[in-house]
Amino acid sequence: MNVKATIRDYWDKRSESYDRSPGHVCLPELWKSILNDVFEDMARILDVGTGTGFLASLLAELGHEVVGLDISKGMLNVARRKTKVDFILGDAESLPFKDESFDAVICRHLLWTLPNPGRAISEWVRVAREMVVIIDGKWMTNNFRSKLRRFLGRLLVGIYERRNPFEPIHYGRYLLPFYGGISADIVIEMLRSAGLKVKVLDLSWLRKRMGEKLPFAYRIAWTSDDYFMIVGFV
What we know:
- The chain is built from ten helices and seven strands.
- The chain is an alpha/beta fold.
- The protein has one domain (3-233): Rossmann fold (3-Layer(aba) Sandwich), CATH 3.40.50.150.
């Protein structure tokens, strides 16, 4: 199996329905406030795994020079229709940039999609002069109640987004080490192993606010307990 091609093809298929999932694009003003606090003095920022460009566009609105990178042409096509940020096709685990090309690198909800997250973090550290910022969480637990909520939520979300709710990320469970999300402790250890000093910000309050804004279909399966931003200082 060509893992990268499989990942790319999946997200290409998801691109046109991705922004119909409101959890990805809600509370923009609140996100801008959080981003401004972190990146106030940063001039040039790489948004890796930019998807449809939500964070990239907010950072651009805040006055930063932003480059958004993604492996999916479909996602980037959607992003380019929304904003004039510089979007580049590329692999988060093998960046097409020279060392220290950016003041900072950010990613949101990306680590779980990568087959080699440790390699990706090494690349992000390589191209960042000052910091690497990772926003992520733990999306799945395996108890019966959580599985039932995910099943019902997926069914309702599929109806809402007009897509097959049970189309699997068929490579995920076998090829992605953090399929289902990642804990803050693991991210902290990975960044420290890469030589970075770490600051952790709890975003569970934001995740809760996001959930309150969602249609009923999404609230069924929404989790808010483990959501975080980790800043690694180079």
